[in-house]
Automatic annotation (TrEMBL):
InterPro entries: AB_hydrolase_1, AB_hydrolase_fold, MES/HNL
Gene (name only): LOC123440792
Gene3D superfamilies (UniProt xref): alpha/beta hydrolase (3.40.50.1820)
Residues in coiled coil: none
Gene Ontology MF term list: methyl indole-3-acetate esterase activity; methyl jasmonate esterase activity; methyl salicylate esterase activity
Pfam families linked to this entry: Abhydrolase_6
Name assigned to this protein: AB hydrolase-1 domain-containing protein
Record-annotated AB hydrolase-1 domain positions: 13-261
Domain of life: Eukaryota
Length: 272
């Protein structure tokens, strides 16, 4: 896999994991992109991966997303680096918050089987629709809802069960990646009642809407189905679409080479 860059600009990919996961889930993508000559940063959102906080110690979606917001805020400008944000699953919502805060710093945003909110609706609408569809079909299987308390009051965190991971998340992925996920996933808070999630005016056309967006559809996704993914695309006209056949929800695991090819294609097209 080789990059065909036609300029001296160096691409800096910032990778954002989904709910209950961490930077660890991107290990294949990090290695492949670095081998192709790109700079890569995989972040641990608060109470995720190696981050030291517990899920009940994170009091808001803003606080949860702070590691990403800080990474984008401190990314250098004007030194020949181009920032591309890549979000997976629930991580797409943190991506959206970063795009609204720092639209001028991001060359492109890639939503890989991710929650992609739209201008004019509150961010939580994507999670609410996902939960509506999964609860009516029993797709959450052996996931547990754990009671938690933080500064916003009582709430729940999701703990992904091994059967859910095996049959709805990693069903097309190598067994070693499923085993890794079973060992490393942590309870995650969707922040459904967070004020940021409820604010229909938060995402604006001038900021969030101005950033180039590409949605990567995982066609074998057993969690956020292809239908659900395409529904989100219809809410944001102008979003470019790439498809990866055979990709389960853990697209960075089941089809990491194809995902890297898509990411490099996206940055090469920025040169045209």
């Amino acid at each position: 896999m080789e990059s065909t860059q036609r300029t001296s600009v160096r691409n800096h990919f910032v990778l954002v994991h989904g709910l209950c996961h961490g930077a660890w889930c991107w290990y294949k993508v990090v290695a492949a992109l670095e081998a192709a000559g790109h700079r890569v940063t995989a972040v641990d959102l608060a109470a995720s991966g190696m981050h030291s906080a517990r899920v009940d110690e994170v009091n808001s979606f803003e606080e949860y997303s702070r590691p990403l917001l800080d990474a984008v805020a401190t990314a250098p400008e004007g030194d020949g680096e181009r920032l591309i944000l890549v979000g997976h699953s629930h991580g797409g919502l943190s991506l959206a918050l970063a795009l609204e805060r720092f639209p001028g710093k991001v060359a492109a945003a890639v939503f890989a089987a991710a929650a992609m909110p739209c201008v004019g609706k509150h961010m939580g609408v994507t999670t609410e629709e996902f939960m509506r569809r999964t609860s009516s079909q029993g797709l959450l299987m052996d996931c547990e809802m754990l009671p938690i308390n933080n500064n916003q009051g009582a709430g729940v965190a999701i703990k992904m069960g091994p059967d859910f991971l095996a049959h709805k998340y990693y069903q097309q992925s190598p067994p070693k990646d499923l085993a890794l996920a079973k060992m490393l996933v942590r309870p995650g808070n969707q922040f459904l009642d967070d004020p940021v999630m409820k604010d229909a005016c938060l995402l604006t056309a001038d900021k969030y809407g101005s950033v180039k967006k590409v949605y990567v559809v995982a066609k074998a996704d057993g969690s956020s189905t292809e239908e659900m993914q395409r529904w989100m695309v219809t809410l944001s006209p102008g979003t470019e679409v790439e498809e990866i056949a055979g990709a389960d929800h853990a697209i960075m695991s089941s089809k990491h080479k194809e995902l890297c090819d898509v990411l490099i294609k996206i940055v090469d097209n920025l040169n045209i």
